[in-house]
Specification:
By secondary structure, the chain is α/β, with parallel strands linked by helices. It has 11 helices and 8 strands.
Length: 269
Amino acid sequence: MPKASINGIDMNYKVEGRGEPIILIMGFSGGRMSWFLHTRTFKKAFQVITFDNRGAGKTDRPIEPYTIKTMADDTVGLMDYLGIDRAHILGVSMGGMIAQEVAINYPERVKKLVLGCTFARRDETSGHSAEYHRLLGLAEDCPNDVILNIPIDKYMSTIYSLASGNRLVQMLMGPVAMIRFKLGNNTGVKGQLEAILNHDTQERLHMIQAPTLVMTGTEDRLIKPSSSEVLASRIPNTRLVKFEGGAHAFFVAMRGRFTKEVLDFLTAG
């Protein structure tokens, strides 16, 4: 798999298909391989670019602090490396945060924007759910340093269990996540978590110029579904789509409808 030297890191990426470029940005701790089922559909109509964010997969895990803005700069740096002037940008969860920063800071680089199961700010109507805080033993208004001091295996098993609406997946993924992060290099995971906790675009959302599609699952137990309503209310020229009964990972569990909604949006005049 090729790598590009961008913004001080070596980034793992892949380009597939032909047509207008679409860049897919995965969420917290996920790598480009998480898109493999979606890519099979999207590459029939688009040139699809997937990559591992800094701190994940085969991309470097630098030790300096991470920010969502830095990861947005990484994304645009990859566009520069590939000679892509303008692209559709699709991001889910943390990837949606990165996509927001790309659209705000590089409006001329974004043709259309798709945001899934993500938020602009953590507050009473937006951000992580009450269940997320309860399972971690935290108050909803606890400071960032308290969250960052939670053992990473406990944090990851909680995230994985909440992301899926499938109970069997929840029971299986928690222990798998615990083993994985006990054995792995957690520098990137902690860096990404710190970036998420400091993410705040709410007062800048009006700066997004690209036509935008916002999607959420109504039964998201990780991120409050109302977070997407906030995004849709503040970003101009936005359409909000709710997936009834969808969990946080609705874009996987309801992949057929998800890809259809995206394709219909991107190909509309």
